[in-house]
Amino acid sequence: MSSEPEYDEVTKTYTTGHEWDGIKELNTPLPRWWLWIIYASIIWSIGYWILMPAWPLVNGHTKGMLGYSQRDTVNAELQAAKDSRKVFSEKLLDADLATIKNTPDLMEFAMAGGKAAFGDNCSGCHGSGASGSKGYPNLNDDDWLWGGTLNEIHETISVGIRGVHEDTRISDMPAFLNDEILNKGQIKDMAAYVVSLSDTTIAPPAGTHEMFQENCAICHGENAKGNKEFGAPNLTDGISLYGADQETLRATISFSRKGVMPTWSGRLDPATIKSLAVYIHSLGGGV
């Protein structure tokens, strides 16, 4: 219902003349400054639509009079980052590993690149903290099958273990049960002997020392301390890649293990492999 505007004594404001069920509407328009902001925003948006990419089309979008492309801006920033890294990458390629370790700016660059490369390529097996899991070595300790020096780590990353590289690391432990070298009883005794090497509370079964010398010492050494040339582990420290309990050791002795680490040479560029070696060596393990 409409009526003539009237003055409201309570609010000191005129009504609009509209009334619904006895309720009258006050005439309280937006503040003028607020209206000007809205008008300015509308004008600005029209200008933006004209100058900048804004409207989606069936095949693409309007380009805008300025021709601005956020994709081009991002690509330019990425290229600038690549160019800045290229200088250090070339320095990494020209420097040996010892020089990298002793050059602060190269070391910082290698650590950053190595950490990123580890997260992308290695953490799936070794874990984000490089602590490993069953079948995947812990890279934070000093127990290294193939050696933990900077150069040895670099070599292992490059050629892999049982990988496709012609110089890949290979350790061929016999499957003593499958190859019919030892029977089940002998393997059970041998597992107990291996446990006794690191746990002096366990007495080795009779004759197992001689059995070890005859079958295992050629790789693991007469003192069972291992041999990095063959990737043969130290059996006296209680650290085992697949488990040091007797049941797991029986399975290892019976059927051997054929774990594979990829050959990263050819999959990663040489500068990245150097960075990875430096980063892994710095984790706390290695020598």
Summarize the structure.
It is built from 11 helices and 5 strands; from the N terminus they run E-E-E-H-E-E-H-H-H-H-H-H-H-H-H-H.
Based on the model shown, name its key terms:
Cytochrome Bc1 Complex, Chain D, domain 2, 287 residues, mainly alpha, 5 strands, 11 helices, two-stranded antiparallel sheet, three-stranded antiparallel β-sheet
What does the model show?
Among the domains are: 73-168 and 261-281, Cytochrome Bc1 Complex, Chain D, domain 2, CATH 1.10.760.10; 184-255, Cytochrome c-like domain (Cytochrome Bc1 Complex, Chain D, domain 2, Orthogonal Bundle). Strand 4 (56-57) and strand 5 form a beta hairpin. The termini are far apart. The chain is elongated and about 120 Å long. It has a 3-stranded antiparallel β-sheet, with no helix packed on it. It has a two-stranded antiparallel sheet with strand order 4-5. With 287 residues, the chain is mostly helical. The model has no long low-confidence stretch (mean pLDDT 91). The protein contains 11 helices and 5 strands, in the order E-E-E-H-E-E-H-H-H-H-H-H-H-H-H-H. The protein is 46% helix and 6% strand.
